[in-house]
Amino acid sequence: MRVSVIGCGHLGAPHAAALAELGHDVIGVELNPETVKKLQSGRSHFYEKGLDELLDRHVPAGRLRFTSSLSEAAEFADLHFVAVGTPLRADGRGYDVGQVVGAVRALAPLLRRPATIVGKSTVTVGTVARLQEIITEHAGSDGVDLVWNPEFLREGHAVEDSLYPDRIVVGLTSSAAEENVREVYAPILARGDAELIVTDPATAEVLKSAANAFLSTKISYINAMAEVCEITGADVATVAHGIGIDPRIGHGGMRPGIGYGGGCLPKDVAAFTHRVGEIGATGAADLLKAVEKVNHARMDAAHDLVERAYGGPLDTATIAVLGASFKAGTSDVRNSPALRLAGLLHSSAARTVIHDPESVAAARHLHPEYSYAEDIRTALDGADIVVLATEWPEFTKDTALPTTAARVVRRRVLVDVRTAVNTSVWTAAGWTVHQLGRPVQHPTA
Ligand SMILES: NC(=O)c1ccc[n+]([C@@H]2O[C@H](COP(=O)([O-])OP(=O)(O)OC[C@H]3O[C@@H](n4cnc5c(N)ncnc54)[C@H](O)[C@@H]3O)[C@@H](O)[C@H]2O)c1
């Protein structure tokens, strides 16, 4: 099929590349001319595992191209994915859906033949109805259908999740559009491993918000249990493992740490909390407020843990912070817990040096006031203690790291606020390991 993807950010760029990989002819539309230039050169403007490989394969072949011209896309494609941003409003009271409304409002009159607009951005319930009115009023042709197809990809796995989604949710405003959606996802549906959920727009909108809210609830739940374990001397890792054996609970999302972050969960939970409160779903609003409260509190708990590990106020400490992106596998630093913790340490007058395999440039752009190291050795050299803030495999799976790091740090003290390392490898190399909600692990060698 000939498809367009409007908005080529963390969702749109992998989605466009995956559609090309699935055999479609794809045009990506992006407002930012620098981004268009970069993508058109076959390289992504951010790090996402496997994305450059797809761009490299499909851009030179002409199957995938990028432009800033919406009319070129309207002319070319029969199906238009809308993947623009929905940031939180400045007052925190729900999403700013200006990019979505703007994109649909601009596209509609340019459509001169029947087409399907497929919304992928995460929106508040009720947005689709508003967009439908815009299309009815402004479409340049009859037969322009709107469907909502929320996206569930995980950053760091965006390419894999776009090619192998576990579900495809489609909220239809007209049954005619179902055929086009089935056709664009035909190679995925033919495999039979992704469930297609065809529903109404309101259900699709709520389903996406409910998914992110549940994930955040699970994360805050185990982090709240970490708080209980800190007070009682219990071990939250064992608690998480033990309760997760029950299939009704499960192990996914149960790793204690400094809480959720990134470009989605914090804003999605905040927007959903506001919206459910607004519509009078007070039980849901109270639950989600508690989820947010726990998430914020864990950051202070992490700061206190670093202080305890150092053994006093941090104003004389030099701290190597490993990780800046909000999670491993992406250079995305939006709402990154790692950077928030680095900021707290920084404001405690600690000297922090941050290293990340992929996101030093993005972090420096956002926080030029912090110090960064391009390589791990420079970050560790002369540090009093080490804080592991993002679970990159370079930090957690490299079994030689505890020994090499021990040679250049002043004290063998690791604060792992992601509960990500194999503690026995570190303690065997002479390290003391501190994790949230767990007893301190002492050196065994
Ligand atoms: N990032 C994710 O992993 C993810 C996962 C699921 C859902 N989502 C949702 O997808 C949407 C996009 O998120 P994102 O993380 O990709 O945001 P992003 O900010 O990385 O990307 C949005 C892009 O859209 C571009 N844009 C805005 N208006 C445009 C227009 N009129 N024409 C062309 N381009 C335009 C912006 O320049 C930007 O590059 C959000 O609603 C988000 O909640 C994101």
Automatic annotation (TrEMBL):
- Domain UDP-glucose/GDP-mannose dehydrogenase C-terminal span(s) in chain numbering: 320-423
Quote the record's binding site residues for NAD(+): T86, T122, E155, K267, R334
Task: Report the catalytic activity.
Answer: UDP-alpha-D-glucose + 2 NAD(+) + H2O = UDP-alpha-D-glucuronate + 2 NADH + 3 H(+)
Task: Tell me which UniProt keywords the record has, alphabetically.
Answer: NAD, Oxidoreductase
Stored Pfam families:
UDPG_MGDP_dh (PF00984), UDPG_MGDP_dh_C (PF03720), UDPG_MGDP_dh_N (PF03721)
Specify the superkingdom.
Answer: Bacteria
NAD keyword on record: yes
User: What's a single GO MF annotation on this record?
Assistant: UDP-glucose 6-dehydrogenase activity
GO terms classed as biological process? polysaccharide biosynthetic process; UDP-glucuronate biosynthetic process
Write out the pathway annotation from the protein's UniProt entry.
Answer: Nucleotide-sugar biosynthesis; UDP-alpha-D-glucuronate biosynthesis; UDP-alpha-D-glucuronate from UDP-alpha-D-glucose: step 1/1
Q: Does the keyword Protein biosynthesis apply?
A: no
| Protein family per UniProt | Belongs to the UDP-glucose/GDP-mannose dehydrogenase family.
Which NCBIfam families does UniProt cross-reference here? Answer: NDP-sugDHase
What's the protein name? UDP-glucose 6-dehydrogenase
> What is the source species?
Streptomyces phaeolivaceus
